[in-house]
Amino acid sequence: MPQDHIDGVDPNRLRRISRWMEGHVRDGRLSGLAVQIARRGQVVFSERAGLADAATGRAVAPDTIWRIYSMTKPVTSLALLMLYEEGAFQLNQPVADFLPAFADPQVWTGEGHALTETEPARRQITIHDLLTHQAGIVYGDPHGNALEQALSAAGLDFDRGFATMAEAVEALAAFPLAFHPGARWFYGLSTDVLGHLIEVISGQTLGGFLKSRIFDPLGMTDTGFSVPEDKAGRLATLYDHAGGGYVPSASQDRCHAPVTLESGGGGLVSTMADYQRFATMLLQRGAYDGGRLLGRKTFDLMVSNQMGGDLASRGQAHFSETTFEGIGFGLGVSVMLDPVRARIVGSPGEFAWGGMASTAFWVDPVEEMTVILMTQLIPSSAYTLRRQLRVLSYQALV
């Protein structure tokens, strides 16, 4: 429950978040959820509501394990920037220097044309393009255009059907790009390519690199690409949005051990406590108790807008884990540019991302605050949970 008194946060206003959480469970929109807010080094709100598994009545617990999907992307991006700091590559360097399958990128000529109708890309795909989703690499979508449908049929919507990410990336490189590198912003599989790039540069599996370089130093003991058998009873059930409620998900569950396809774009599972450690490190500009994962100048570059404008001005994807007006994009995270244009309370410079199962987090350096939402409902667009929670979190600041 909220503490009796915390400087700058009204406990009575925090209780509105509790009522909001309970309402989503009571009205059958969510099986269960957890919310945690930290400010100025203190956890000021940490509550859970509902069930981690509706069929058995298992309640959401402090150690519940959640599939965080695209909240994996900031972790992978940070890991890559750690290698950048070691001199492994330059941001403007072609990814083909490390992944030769991308050496001759072709661009699809678009709607109304066969996928074989392509033209040479005007330039190579750079690592910066991949970090900022400007490479022309999109997600597969069975309901999308011809390219997206073909990617989906090949298992490249969320990387189904491949034994390793090396295989998936090799298959992806055989498809044309959706647009010329750098021409626009479009959410897609770029971070999965970066995950494999980490493997090539480091000589480790992505899971091994993340464990040794990020999870172990931060004490993130329950975060990884698989849930071992002795922790399986803590995993929340995944649900699909259906008829105003939820049903057990039809999506392929990829997180039960052993896992060989380690998706840098969406494969991690984590707990509230673990992701709080990651978010706290981000709030501290790469530092944590006992060390530093990223230099502060590199970190500042990571959370700076790379778009030259907001996402609305850079072309919009069919779906994303953020809105577009007033929001920019850094190296692996969205960046708030203008709360007025975004039509939401917030602070310029805050950075964020979310996941397909409606999880979300953001870090606000101005207010010295982190907010994390954990739940398991696909798709993340089913409800405006993130915007609702933003309002409820900021209204508690006094």
Automatic annotation (TrEMBL):
Gene3D superfamilies the record matches: DD-peptidase/beta-lactamase superfamily
Signal sequence range: none
Pfam families (alphabetical): Beta-lactamase
InterPro entries per record: Beta-lactam-related, Beta-lactam/transpept-like, Diverse_Enzym_Activities
Residue stretches making up the Beta-lactamase-related domain: 18-380
Protein name (Swiss-Prot/TrEMBL): Beta-lactamase family protein
Organism: Ruegeria alba
